[in-house]
Amino acid sequence: MKKTIGMWIVFFSFFLFNMNVSAESIQLNSEEMIICASPFVLLTEYYPVSATDSHLTFDADFADEILRQFSQDKSNTGYNARRITYCADCNRRCAVDGGGSSCIFQCERNELEHHLYEITEMNLSGRDYESSMSIARMIQLLPRLQRLILSDNNLSTFDVSPKYSQSLQVLDLRNNRLTEVEIWNDLRNLDLSSNLLTELNLKACGYLTDLKVNDNNLTSLDVSNCRKLETLKVDAKNFVTFAKFSSALKINNNHQIEGNELGTKVKAVKSLITVENSNVNSTYINKGQTLNDNDNITTGTILRTSLGNVASEYKFVILGDITGTGDVNVSDVARLYQYYKKKVDMESEFVQAGDVTKDGQIEINDVSKLYQYSKHKIDSLE
C-alpha cells in the first residue's frame, strides 16, 4: 500500500512539471498552494527507470543546484548519478546514496495529500497530451476536482471512468482529435466541440445540463436520456433525438414515423412517445396548424421536438393516405396513379404511404390494391 501511494505522489510531480508551474507551489484560483518545501522536486526531465520492492527509482535533471551537484558527485560511492527515490519505508521522497539509506531532502506525504485535496479546478490545455490514461491516474489523486480543462491537446480517446473522479462536473475537451469518448452520469457541463467524433453514446447523462458537440463528424445525436439538458450546441446537419419511441412505432431512415392506422388520434401517439426532459417542447403540426389531442394523425403530420434553438422534425406516414386527409378514397387512388405514370411528384412521406405492397417502389399493383381498399373490396392494407 505504501509503495502504491508513493508511486501516485511521484507520478503527480510529473504533471506539475508539465503544467509549467513550480513543483514547490501551484497557482490556483489566486491562492498559492504549497506542494513541497524541498527544492529538489522541480525537475527539467523526468523518465521512469525502475521499481524495486523498497524503492521507486527515477532519473532526472534537477533544477536545484545543490542537489544537482550531489547527484553528479562521483565521490558518493555506489551512487547512480541523477537518481531520485521514493522510499516506501519512510514514506518520504528522497535523494539517496547508492545504498538508499541517506535522505538529504524530505517531502512529507501527508502535507502533499492535504493540498491535493484542496484542488477543485485544473487547466491542462495546450499540453500536447495524447493519452487519457495518464490523465485518469492524475485526477484520481484529486478527490475534489470539479472542473478539468483539456482543450487544445492531441487526445484521440478519452475513457476516464467515474472510478477516477466522482466529483468531476465540468469537462472541456474541445479542439482535440477525439474519435471516441466515454461519458458518465455525474457530468454537468461537457464541451466536445471541434473534434473528430462520428458517434457519441449518451446513455449515461442523467445530470448533464450543457453539451457542445458542434464541429464534429456527427450526423445524428440521441439525447433522449439527458433528462436535465438545458443548452445544446450542434451543427445544423445533426439530427437530434429528444424522445424515446415505443416499439409499436417504426422510425425509418428518413425520420418518418410509421405504424399508425387511419383515424389514430394525437393523444394515442403521445402515449407511445416519451420525452423525459421537461425542457424539451413537443408539437404536432398539420398544414401549419398545431393539433390538439383529439385531432387525427395524417400522412404529413409533423412531430416537432425542440430544445432552445435546436429542433428535430419527424413526419408521419399513414398507409394509404396519399392526400394527407386522414382517409382513403378515390382521390388517393387517382393521386397514386398519377405518380405511377410520372405525371406528378410527391414528397417522400406520401410516396411511402402509397407503397401499400411494401416492396419499396410504386407499381400498378399498389394502385390496384389501394383501389380495392377504397371500394371496400378488401378489409386491410396490411
Report on this structure:
- The protein is elongated and about 80 Å long.
- The chain has helices spanning 2-18, 65-72, 109-118, 132-139, 266-270, 330-340, 348-354, 364-374, and strands at residues 25-28, 31-34, 43-51, 55-62, 83-87, 92-94, 121-123, 147-149, 157-158, 170-172, 180-181, 189-191, 210-212, 220-222, 231-233, 239-241, 244-245, 250-251, 256-260, 273-274, 281-286, 289-290, 302-307, 310-318.
- The strands form seven sheets. Strands 7-8-10-12-13-15 form a six-stranded parallel sheet, with no helix packed on it. A six-stranded mixed sheet has the order 18-19-24-23-21-22, covered by helices on one side.
- It is 20% helix and 25% strand.
- Strand 7 (121-123), helix 4 (132-139) and strand 8 form a beta-alpha-beta unit.
- Helix 6 (330-340) runs antiparallel to helix 8.
- The chain is of the alpha/beta class.
Give keywords:
alpha/beta, six-stranded mixed sheet, 8 helices, 24 strands, disordered N terminus
Entry summary:
By secondary structure, the protein is α/β, with parallel strands linked by helices. The chain contains eight helices and 24 strands.
Low-pLDDT residue intervals, each spanning 5 or more residues = 1-111
Shape: elongated
Instruction: Identify the strand order in the major beta sheet.
Output: 7-8-10-12-13-15
How many strand elements?
A: 24
- Overall SS class: alpha/beta
Please indicate the percent range of residues in DSSP E strands (runs of 2 or more): 15-25%
Mean pLDDT: 75
Helix count from the secondary structure assignment:
8
The helical percent reads 10-25%
Q: What does the main sheet amount to?
A: 6 strands, parallel
Radius of gyration: 32 Å
Kindly, what is the distance between the CA atoms of the first and last residues, rounded to a whole number of angstroms?
A: 68 Å
